[in-house]
Amino acid sequence: MSEKKIRVLMSKPGIDGHWRGGIVVSRAIRDAGMELIFGGFQNAKQIVESAIQEDVDVLGLSIHSGAHFAYTKQVIDLLKEKGVFNDILILVGGVIPAQDFTKLKEMGVANIYGPGSMTNDIVEFIKTHLKK
Amino acid sequence: MTNDDIIESLVNRVKKKDKIALARLITIVENEPEKATKIFKHFENINHDSYIIGLTGSPGVGKSTLTGAIAQKMLDEGKTIGIISVDPTSPFSGGAFLGDRVRMTNICLHPNVFMRSLASRGYQGGISRAVFDISMLYEAFGMDIIIIETVGVGQAEFDVYNLVYTVVVILVPGYGDVIQMQKAGIIEIGDIYDVNKKDLGGEDIAVQIEMMLDDTIFQSGYRPPVVLTDAISGEGIDELLQCIWDHKEHVELSGNINEKKKNRFSYKIKELLFTKVEKLIMENFVDENEVTNIVKSALEDGKFNIYSSIHKIFDKITLEIKKNS
């Protein structure tokens, strides 16, 4: 029974009420044999504290409010401050304009998934890009 | 650093109340339980003073929301709390959707709480194999209170009873009639019965539980109370918490706590022994191909008898064990 499982935290920073995307991706992650912790609405501090206590390998941020730069920066700054940024793969999903991808990646996001993304690709990316 | 050095350094950090290190040690005992021996060797004197409470009930009765609500009150009273919440692992994919933390966002940032979501990982009984080890880590961390929230259970998953000192069984309006209350199992193990979602009714269920308790003899003199709560609005939470403290006092003053601690450890020792013996036998004496072949040939010759097939395998194992001892 003892085996390593990939642990993923799925959070929605802010309070935009678009849950379906995060739920669909969470389900795909569950069905790929990973352990998905659903964080729901959380602010940056709550997201980082949850990621630490759950010792996750991956953090998914589902953002549909247009505030992806602000939220992602807050989360990444806090992860760095706590010294866990290098252990956690960060993915962002939601309505993110393609021209913002590069900047998000420069900030430390591993990949971005907008509308129409394939859940299989997300699962495959996680499996091949874990940091620890 | 070698594995041993990593463990030792994590243990030292936990002794200094480092939550990141605690989270890492939990991952280790969960993924590699064989390392628990090494980890707990470094915690010389765990005094097992944490008081352990279990919350159990069917899916959707409000276990997580109640956990968040009572934990908030306990934090207000200045307690330090470790929470373990278990949700089921899929028998198909091996994955899990852990949806307990989302109900406890209110306490997430409090410095005196640590909360961990666990998947059951194939373990039966409403908990996960790692629950015991994690509760020991919380004890080592110096938590005053440990709350174990089970998987949403049915009638017969009551292993949590063996690991905690106070069991809160949570029901909701519409649970059932007098017959349901007479069934053995989960309905018997409560030290406190909580009828949650009282905004939907529930007085009838409370009466049914009281009638069931009327037919029970309590040799200790403690009769489990029945509380009505609405976890979301917070109604009844103070009463529920008072019932928990009352039961704690009863358990501690009566000396019953020592029996419960003994039971907790012997439960784990037995489980460890069974696991080791099973592994030893499966690895050394059971050839899974042979099992498949016996079943295959038995099915093919049309005279398949499951019991004679099993005996064929079992006799051979017994013989080999005897030869080796």
Please characterize this protein's 3D structure.
The complex is a heterodimer of chains A (132) and B (325). Chain A contains five helices and five strands, in the order βαβαβαβαβα. Chain A is of the alpha/beta class and 132 residues long. In chain A, α1 packs across α5. Chain B has 325 residues and is of the alpha/beta class. Chain B has three domains: 44 residues, no CATH class; 209 residues, P-loop containing nucleotide triphosphate hydrolases (Rossmann fold), CATH 3.40.50.300; 55 residues, no CATH class. In chain B, β7, α7 and β8 form a beta-alpha-beta unit. The longest helix of chain B has 30 residues. Classes of the chains: A alpha/beta (132), B alpha/beta (325). Chains A and B meet through α1, β2 and α2 of A and α2, β3 and β4 of B.
Would you spell out the secondary-structure blueprint of this structure?
The complex is a heterodimer of chains A (132) and B (325).
Chain A: E1 7-13, H1 20-31, E2 35-42, H2 44-53, E3 58-63, H3 68-82, E4 89-94, H4 101-107, E5 111-113, H5 119-129
Parallel strand pairs in A: 1-2, 1-3, 3-4, 4-5
Helix pairs in contact in A: 1-5, 2-3
Chain B: H1 3-15, H2 19-31, H3 36-42, E1 51-57, H4 63-76, E2 81-87, E3 96-98, E4 113-119, H5 131-141, E5 145-149, E6 166-171, H6 178-182, E7 192-195, H7 203-214, E8 226-228, H8 237-253, H9 256-285, H10 288-300, H11 306-324
Helix pairs in contact in B: 1-2, 2-5, 4-8
Descriptive keywords:
heterodimer, A: 132 residues, Rossmann fold, 42% helix, B: 325 residues, alpha/beta, 7-stranded parallel beta sheet, 8 strands, 13% strand, globular
